[in-house]
Specification:
The complex is a heterotrimer of chains A (274), B (140) and C (335). Chain B is α/β, with parallel strands linked by helices. Chain B is built from five helices and four strands, in the order βαβαβαβαα. In chain C, β8 and β9 form a beta hairpin. The two termini of chain C are 34 Å apart. Classes of the chains: A alpha/beta (274), B alpha/beta (140), C alpha+beta (335).
Amino acid sequence: MSRAEEELRSIVRKLLERKDVELVLGYEYYGRSVRPCFVSKPEEVERLVWNSDCWFNLATYLRSLRSRRVGIVAKGCDGRSIVELVKENQVDRGSIVVIAVECNGVFKPFKYGSTHVGRRLADYCRRCVTRVSPVADYLVKKGGQAPEDENTVAGDNASDWLSLFRKCLKCMACVKACPLCYCTECSIEGFKPDLVHRLRVPQELFTFHLTRALHMAGRCVECGACESACPVEIPLTRLYHELNEWFRENYGYAPGMSLSEAPPPLVFKEGGED
Amino acid sequence: MSWKPRVIVFTCWCSSSGVDQAGFEGFTYPPNVLTVRVPCSAVINPSLIVKAFEKGADAVLVTACRPSELRRVAPSRVTEARVSLLRRLLRTIGVEEDRLRILWISSNEGSLFSREVSRILGEVERLGPLNIGGSMVEQG
Amino acid sequence: MLFLDEDGFKRLLEQLVSNIRVIAPVETDGYFEFKTIKHGGEASLDYSNTRLPPKRFFLPQREVVFKHDPKTRALHEPMGGLEAVLLGVRPCDASALNIFDSVLLKPPNPDPFYESRRRSITVVSLSCAKPREECFCNVFEAGPIRGSGEDITLTRITGGFLVEARSRRGQSLVEVSASLFEEAGPEHLEEYGELTCRLTREMNSRIEISRERLVRLEATLDEGFFQQAAQRCVECSLCSFTCPVCYCFDTEDYFEKNAYVRTKGWDTCASTLFTRMASGLDPRVSRVDRFCHRFCHKLSRIPMAFNSFGCVGCGRCVSLCPVGVDIREVLKRWG
């Protein structure tokens, strides 16, 4: 157990003992991998872990726990998505306690049938801009050991997106793992069958992915949950990153960096001459 | 049979009368240009533009009012921003970004419309067929 | 049992490829996927398992049921199925076909699309030498050496393969190139026996459960446990789409290119749309209900109705689930 883990556990124990929160969202081991866990009793705190396998973005659960006071273990990108959720009035900042953990990047998760033996740093972590969450009530420094990366070459940037889309099963894991995809009637899940019907795979995968990209543009915090959840490993974060770049170039805006910064589409000003 | 590009034009209320004007004034534009009239260019959901590409459009044009002629400038600027974002997206996934254009067309600019459309059509013809729908279905 | 040496296997593969469509695991980007191969060298047999099950060759993700032209009133029913050999299916995935058979071919209304595909594809399974750590096929007797839906079982031993024809179709495939095979010697059989023993022991040491108790899962449902477990589920449908056994489908009617088309495609019980009716009523309204349903259906309802479990223990859902929902926890608790 690392020092960071010890510190994390003591913070969570304190929070639960003082009844500051009803529930803490954290990570636990199961087998070789790490999965989200919900800790509600001080004696369960020993389950909590924090290392470079904790890739899932726990902010995904915040909306379904809206009525409760919850603590959440948040990496830099998770913190950014909490900021976005607060800005979009999906969660109440006052009812969540953010336990920020300093993150050095996460590994790609082990996938069924993979022939890769070594652990690899996830591609999106190479583009990371915030190692610590922009909002934090508690801070655990020096979280997770620096990942030993066997593959120092950055991911291949040029790829045939259409053939990547074609692999898609449309299992919706990207949508459901995303903290910011919270619509109860998702336009690409099939609630609006004229745009994307549930069954038209692969015909409508182009619209499926591009619509999702457009909905994530300027909102995506590049936490990589979609990419790591994907069973066929479509590098979605790279696509969303490009659109975020567009926002950065045109408006100097990056999502989830501060609570006071309004998203550009919201404050769109009439401007310029034609 | 020689291939003709299929072009979808989303026209706002004002610029659609510009398109009509082209007809009144005897300017022609090719028959493979299909216009879809919408109340304002800012209501065009970018997903519909994507859908148009998926359904077999080789190019999509959005015609909007000139920002300088509007009492409020924002709607056309919103469209401009969306089209620019969408062009970035198309470029990223490897579709030529010139397949999506925005044109400023006022209600009396029929000649401009027919001229521009013919020019763009020529460019699209050089780019060749897109066929997103077909390439998605093909077995990899 | 017959023995086929390495060289004979290569020759058999070449023979098959030149005569018939052969689908075999091919390595692409660090994964194995079933693909049609053009020559024997393309197939790679050093895989733990393919990322996705071979389900799509029997139940495509989307298929046309019929097309109807309103003008000519012609009804066109495409009935698919190229003759093919599906090579290198793991016993667990092959056993899934057996479950398909009992569910989809049950009289009086067998699924004609599945039936035609099942008839035209010969399944050759390759037994596992090193089960993955997520695997639990021993629980459902779906491996690791023999499955239950294949036509031929290959088992890798020193110097070649042991070949066991499991069906008439498998028998005839063996007979076509009978000269390549030889009768398995005692040393081969001995090795086979040892391998079976070792693997069974290894699998049983991981997880061993009582199947009779498992069937009563639904009757003795502990909602507290499922509420705890379902908390974690984000309701993506990854588990059903990557499951070799999940066979639920939905149909869609639409008008396209002057014809009415009815298609059928994969559906999933994890989706909120799965049980929602036209009136808006949804009998499985909460996340816990849908979560429970998945396990009850696989482990309790399918066995009661069809006498075989709806799970083969391939471990895909365990490994791929983004939030670590683990069916083995349910098994260990009720088995």
